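Student: Please help interpret what follows.
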Amino acid sequence: MTPEKVESAIRRIIEVSRPRKLILFGSYVRNTSSTNSDIDFLLITGDDVENPRKESVRIRRALRGISMPMDILVVPQSRWEQLKDHPGMIYREAFMKGKVVYES
């Protein structure tokens, strides 16, 4: 994975989903990624997104052509507020150690 591919994915996610916030987290942000690592994205959406899983699939389809392994988590704003402070949850890692790459 190259920084150019990561930036391209970020731009496309923003274009397609218009999230309230986009957080990059995991090994890429910690500078511990390897050739087998994936990129971890957390999208915080408005509460109008009824099915976060379907939204994640829709975004993944829009990212076809950007060949790198990615995990895309989608969470509505109100749910994010509930989950971001729970120890042991991936949302907390994103909140505490992630890098906000977009915020509306």
